[in-house]
């Protein structure tokens, strides 16, 4: 039996580390099942315990362990480090998303509701090599930003069209400030991560405006979103591995169209929201630096 330490996900929380002997004891007692997500150093990403050979009696699947000489990248499609994943329940995601929107509309509770939502969403996000990811920001850190975002939700109903156009770059700057705040307040195993988003405010505004303009082309916005996400990833500093966005413009296009059409019928909203969130999170991955440049 190896001496590796293991983590597993239960009730949306990451548990561990545990020595392998203790993990197997948890399996025997039924606390860890075939569908439980587990991770250990050298794996390309979180996997179900039943997919790891020898882990669960009767389980099957390809090996998830690193090969001699370095971590395996096969499971990540050639990207060292692996893809991110998110574990969100249908109704929990829907309920919290609605409360997030309501908090923004009510303006005053916006800083508290936004912080509460971010803490929850990051606790459900699984990142290879970063167990127990958490968001540690406080509601009053940038309270004025969320108050301004809440106020701008009413601009769309104003009759002054020039005010609506003016709000576009203002919204972009506010979103840029939120991203910088989130990046600087992430931790793993209760240890702060030295992560920073160093993309310029002007660059972010440019992408935001380009997105609005691209809707003229009917479908071009999907490729703008893809390029924008990659620009954001390139400007994330403080990580040993590169953060990359792997989706293509076509994938963003058809999945978003399916999501929007399904939501028109109201009833499918919880399922479509979870489906889209899980897919979108999985399009972000960690790669050894220089992987894309050498591809």
How is the largest sheet built, in terms of strand order? 2-1-3-4
For the record, give the distance between the C-alpha atoms at the N and C termini, rounded to a whole number.
37 Å
Q: Mind telling me the C-alpha Rg?
A: 21 Å
Order of helices and strands: EEHEEEEHHEEHHEEEHHEEHHE
Mean pLDDT: 84
Structure, explained:
- It is a single chain.
- With 295 residues, the protein is α+β, with helices and mostly antiparallel strands.
- Helices cover 44% and strands 15% of the residues.
- It has helices at 20-28, 90-105, 110-123, 143-152, 161-183, 201-214, 221-234, 249-264, 269-282; strands spanning 5-10, 13-19, 37-40, 47-48, 82-83, 85-86, 125-126, 133-135, 186-188, 191-192, 196-197, 236-237, 242-245, 284-287.
- The strands form five sheets. It has a four-stranded antiparallel beta sheet with strand order 2-1-3-4. The chain has a three-stranded antiparallel beta sheet with strand order 5-14-13.
- A hairpin with a 2-residue loop joins strand 9 and strand 10.
- The chain is globular.
- 24% of the residues are buried.
- Residues 60-80 have low confidence and may be disordered.
């Amino acid at each position: 039996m190896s001496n590796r330490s293991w983590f597993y996900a239960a009730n949306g929380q990451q548990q561990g580390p545990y020595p392998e002997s203790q993990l197997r004891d948890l399996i025997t007692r039924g606390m860890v099942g075939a569908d439980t997500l587990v991770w250990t150093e050298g794996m390309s990403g979180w996997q179900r315990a039943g997919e790891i050979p020898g882990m669960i009696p009767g389980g099957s699947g390809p090996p998830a362990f690193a090969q001699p000489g370095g971590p395996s990248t096969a499971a990540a499609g050639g990207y060292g480090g692996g893809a991110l994943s998110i574990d969100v329940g249908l109704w929990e995601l829907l309920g919290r998303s609605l409360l997030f929107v309501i908090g923004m509309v009510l303006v005053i509770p916006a800083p508290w509701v936004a912080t509460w939502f971010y803490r929850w969403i990051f606790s459900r996000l699984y990142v290879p090599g970063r167990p127990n990811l958490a968001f540690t920001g406080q509601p009053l850190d940038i309270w004025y930003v969320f108050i301004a975002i809440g106020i701008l939700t009413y601009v769309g109903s104003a009759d002054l069209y020039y005010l609506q156009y003016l709000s576009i770059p203002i919204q972009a700057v506010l979103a840029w400030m939120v991203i910088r705040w989130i990046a600087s307040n992430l931790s793993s195993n209760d240890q702060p991560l030295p992560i920073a988003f160093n993309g310029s405010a002007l660059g972010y505004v440019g992408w935001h405006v380009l997105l609005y303009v691209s809707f003229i082309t009917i479908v071009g916005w999907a490729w703008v979103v893809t390029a924008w996400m990659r620009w954001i990833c390139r400007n994330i500093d403080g990580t040993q591995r590169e953060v990359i966005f792997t989706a293509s413009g076509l994938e963003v296009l058809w999945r978003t169209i399916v999501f929007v059409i399904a939501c028109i019928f109201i009833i499918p909203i919880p399922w479509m929201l979870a489906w889209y969130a899980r897919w979108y999170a999985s399009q972000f991955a960690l790669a050894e630096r220089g992987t894309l440049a050498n591809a």
